[in-house]
Amino acid sequence: MWKIAVGFVIFAAIALYVISKAGDKIDMSGEKHGGDTTTHEPAPAAAPK
Fold this sequence. Notes:
Residues 28-49 are annotated as: Disordered. This protein has one helix at residues 2-22. By secondary structure, the chain is mostly helical.
């Protein structure tokens, strides 16, 4: 039982370390679907000869 508690403490410490190092650069909003994603314009067609 104590191994579970130690494992949880280690996991929590690693998670807090990663979050503190990333700062505000972490995006926890999930997948992006819809208008807020970046869109790319199609490449212009080659001119006929």
